[in-house]
Amino acid sequence: MNAPEPALNAALAAPSAAATRPMPHVLNTYGRLPIALSHGQGCWVWDTHGKRYLDGLGGIAVNTLGHGHPKLVPALQEQVAKLIHTSNYYEVPLQEQLAAKLCEISGLDGAFFCNSGLEANEAALKIARKFGHDKGIDRPEIIVYEKAFHGRSIATLSATGNPKVQAGFGPLVEGFVRVPMNDLAAVEAVAKSNPNVVAVFLETIQGEGGVNPSRWEYLQGLRKLCDAQGWLLMLDEVQCGIGRTGKWFAHQWAGIQPDVMPLAKGLGSGVPIGAVVCGPRALNVLGPGNHGTTFGGNPLAMRAGVETLRICEEDGLLANAATVGALLHQGLVREIGALPGVMDIRGAGLMIGIELDRPCGVLLGRAAEAGLMISVTADKVIRIVPPLILSAEEAAQIVAILAPLVKAFLSEAT
Ligand SMILES: Cc1ncc(COP(=O)(O)O)c(C=O)c1O
């Protein structure tokens, strides 16, 4: 290896306050546990000391196929050797292949590819605004939701309904009208009073906000209202999409279709990817020069998407998410559902939230100590979003590890 440049040498040697952290040259933007992960297999991950963890987190709903999947790994190895990136100056046949598959499974008509959830949502917001401008609305507005999370760019954090995410980043982007979830009358009231609305934008199941599902009748009502008003229905399926709930997309449980659907997380099984999938009303809103990204749709990410969807189908992972998710849910209800501090256990398939009556962030570290990876979101909600390959046995192991931790936690003085 070449010696580092002098400036880099000096920087590496310079003592600083950051040097007390285990990763002193990485900006301090995450509260991390002191665990360094080394490798994984299936639903299991090992740290650099050889300790094993059951992965109830799936990289935050990302590792659809778990770790080291025997079908995904050789396909990606082959792709890396062939072509990783080319640019969007040229055709990328794998983009068409993945877009066609996304259209087949969603019933929609076309896709734009990017690299992350927030980028997919940015594209959706741009589509909504341009859709409005094309109709002659100069200051288009978009209905968004309390407790929503859409990302951390300036526009997507403005659409997000969490003051903690927004704090320190004002002025926020204008053009959003906020309503509570599952309250159709609130949206109808906006429809009556605000002629500038062009779209309704929500997560089918809120993830970061605490695993809060939209009621299916509510989504059906929204679909009708959007049709009547000429609005776009934009469903953020970044976290709940790609088979996690037992259908390809969570809104399919309600038997409706959105006009615009941002995707990311699980679509690449860990390879960064984002997509916004559009129905006829949104399909031709953006034209050449309106939107783009350097990395978006590169052959490696597209291959990861194609293989993820193929393997999900071949291996029956949607059905697995539904059945193993139900077992996990039942196990949790049986073991901790009746505890006084457990307010609710909710979700769909392998997207489960356990709401406690008090902040429980401390459980993240305790679960890791006990060999389980989970997350805590919205302060009080334990979230379980494991790989879709989770077995019934592993689901039982999650319950067996988590239940005593929750019991002990709730029995502590507050
Ligand atoms: C529903 C939803 N939308 C958007 C995002 C942002 O995705 P990313 O972190 O890939 O930008 C997230 C991330 O948690 C999410 O859950």
Molecular structure report:
- It is a single chain.
- The protein has 414 residues and is an alpha/beta fold.
- It folds into 2 domains: 10-62 and 317-411, Aspartate Aminotransferase, domain 1 (Alpha-Beta Complex); 72-314, Type I PLP-dependent aspartate aminotransferase-like (Major domain) (Aspartate Aminotransferase, domain 2, 3-Layer(aba) Sandwich).
- 37% of the residues lie in helices and 18% in strands.
- The chain has helices spanning 6-13, 58-61, 72-82, 93-106, 117-134, 154-159, 163-166, 184-193, 216-229, 299-314, 317-336, 362-369, 392-411, and strands spanning 37-41, 44-47, 52-55, 110-114, 141-145, 176-179, 197-203, 205-206, 212-213, 232-236, 260-263, 274-278, 342-348, 351-356, 372-373, 375-377, 381-384.
- The protein has a 4-stranded mixed β-sheet. Strands 6-5-7-10 form a 4-stranded parallel β-sheet, with helices on both faces.
- A hairpin with a 2-residue loop joins strand 1 (37-41) and strand 2 (44-47).
- It is globular and about 60 Å long.
- Pyridoxal-5'-phosphate is lined by residues 116-118, 121, 149-151, 203, 207-208, 236, 238-239, 264.
